[in-house]
Design a protein that fits this description.
Layout lengths: L17 E5 L3 H12 L3 E5 L5 H15 L11 E3 L3 H5 L4 E4 L5 H14 L5 E4 L6 H4 L10 E5 L9 E5 L6 H13 L3 E4 L9 H17 L5 H9 L2 H8 L1 H7 L5 H19 L7 H14 L5 H20 L6
Parallel strand pairs: 1-2, 1-4, 2-3, 4-5, 5-6, 7-8
Antiparallel strand pairs: 6-7
Helix pairs in contact: 1-2, 9-10, 10-11
Bound molecules: nicotinamide-adenine-dinucleotide (NAD).
């Protein structure tokens, strides 16, 4: 079957779809929570001992902070004894197994062999391309896409959707609609690149941050202050490019690029490559240890999540912003 044979949604609104979630660790549990909260039914599979109990516990915890646990949500969750049973009647599969290429290839080949023809198969892979992970699939590899979420994935709306080069527009459109149906903000990535787009953007920033720490220009905690009390505040509201245009006043982006583009180019060309050797790793680890000394990391994660929820609520009040 080719990707073109995916013949549209099983219902017009993408509500009440049959979702299969394969691999129910940190990310899989977040997807299960999001699909249940939006009214879909979920069949989950994970071969680890105790996975079913852990999933239920994590889903309850996630739902408590997002929608609150509502009557029928958990009734729509089934844990299947095998991968084949989990995907047998799925409209949409979200795979979240370990980030090892040969494992992804084997899992996705099995999913492709048994999932219904109409099903889209998405992988949460952080960096492999859809062509790489679908290499062992033989039935309809063109329907295997990347749907890459961001931790904590029950809260952060972004999903990067990366199709294979030959995937049909209809399939891509259907995947985007399904993600939107659970409140996600998908972006379409039009080329297969290591790390997709967003991990590359993060890597660009990490590269310079690591280099500046390595050179002793600033401390680890200075880097974190610089972003979280500086540009990071603005980026969460507008994103770096729309934000940059505001620096041009009434002249907008054209003025910024004419005025500050030339010095910016000097800075860009001065950025250093870094190698994560033992010395640099130790400096970064010691720096973060210093910064977070005496604090409980679970408490920090909880506070981060509370602030994220407040920020997302605030963003819904300014829907005219992009
Ligand atoms: N953790 C993150 O921040 C993050 C963010 C975005 C994407 N991802 C991606 O999501 C995927 C899952 O990452 P995670 O952090 O949830 O890992 P995790 O270790 O928490 O979960 C992986 C799960 O896969 C299960 N598993 C192992 N073999 C399996 C098999 N054959 N079939 C089904 N399940 C199997 C394991 O039992 C485990 O529960 C990875 O591809 C990762 O790159 C992770």
């Amino acid at each position: 079957m080719s990707a073109e044979m995916n013949t549209g949604p099983v219902n017009a609104t993408n509500e009440g779809l049959a979702i299969a979630v394969i691999g129910t660790g940190v990310i899989g549990a977040a997807w299960v929570s999001g699909f249940l909260a939006a009214g879909h039914s979920v069949t989950a599979f994970d071969p680890a001992d105790g996975a079913e109990e852990r999933l239920l516990e994590q889903v309850k915890a996630n739902l408590e902070v997002t929608t609150g646990i509502k009557g029928s949500q958990l009734d729509r969750l089934v844990f299947a004894p095998t991968l084949a049973e989990a995907v047998a009647s799925a409209d949409f599969v979200q795979e979240n197994g370990p980030e090892r290429l040969e494992v992804k290839q084997a899992m996705l080949a099995e999913v492709d062999a048994v999932a219904p023809e109409k099903a889209i198969i998405a992988s949460s892979t952080s960096g492999f391309s859809p062509s790489e992970i679908s290499a062992e699939a033989t039935k309809a590899p063109g329907r295997i896409i990347v749907g890459h979420p961001f931790n904590p994935a029950h809260l952060v709306p972004l999903v990067e959707v990366v199709p294979t080069p030959g995937a049909s527009a209809e399939l891509v459109d259907r995947a985007l609609k399904i993600y939107r149906s659970i409140g996600k903000k998908p972006i379409l990535v039009r080329a297969e690149l290591p790390g997709h787009v967003v991990n590359r953007l993060q890597a660009a920033l990490w590269q310079e941050a690591y280099s500046l720490v390595n050179e002793g220009v600033v401390s680890v905690s200075d880097i974190d202050t610089a972003i979280s009390y500086g540009p990071g505040l603005r980026w969460a509201i507008l994103g770096p490019l729309a934000q940059q245009s505001l620096s041009g006043g009434s002249g907008g982006m054209r003025h910024v690029l004419d005025h500050l583009g030339p010095p910016q180019e000097v800075w860009m060309h001065d950025l250093k490559q870094v190698h994560l050797d033992v010395d640099l790793k130790e400096k970064l680890i010691a720096g973060v240890d210093d910064e977070l000394a005496g604090r409980d990391s679970a408490a920090i994660a909880r506070q981060r999540d509370e602030m994220l929820i407040s920020l997302l609520e605030l963003k819904t009040r300014y829907e005219e912003l992009p």
